[in-house]
Write a structure and sequence with these properties.
This protein is mainly alpha-helical. The chain has one domain. The protein contains seven helices and no strands. Helix 1 runs antiparallel to helix 5 and helix 4 packs across helix 6.
Length: 175
Amino acid sequence: MSHRHVSGWVIMNALIVFVAQYLLYFILAAAAVIWLFVPRQDKVDLAAQVVVSLVIVFVLIKLAGAIHTDPRPFVADPLIRPLFVHGADNGFPSDHTAVAATVALLVMMYSRWLGVTLLVASLVLGASRMAAHVHHGQDIVAALLIAVLAVGIASVTWRRVRPRLPRRLTGQASI
């Protein structure tokens, strides 16, 4: 193998590791910046739905993990080495992907193109975690489904609760 070929693999693996470990933080930071620029009423709506959605996501992740076990790729096949140190716990579902996709879907409700951009980043995050050998495809798919379910439940819940709240809490001007 040539030196150029080896250095190409090193760079690619470093990129995969960076994306797998840190893209979630960029997605969260981007969502926070987006939140700063939405109208006040939307700020309250988005913040409330983020809190409710993330609570639901964490509950669903724990529930899914208790129902189904998927050993991480490097556990299932000892010949596979993860690209970064990772615990040998249940890989189902991918919590990184679930959180990233949840935030992306929530942003999409207020800014379609920014939400789609973050959702694509969430998919790249999931793919990089597979490429890093810490998740299987089913872990990523389950995480996406959990995100959709959590955002759906939070959105419906917020639409029912919001009209019952005092106007000052929902960001609406008093009439």
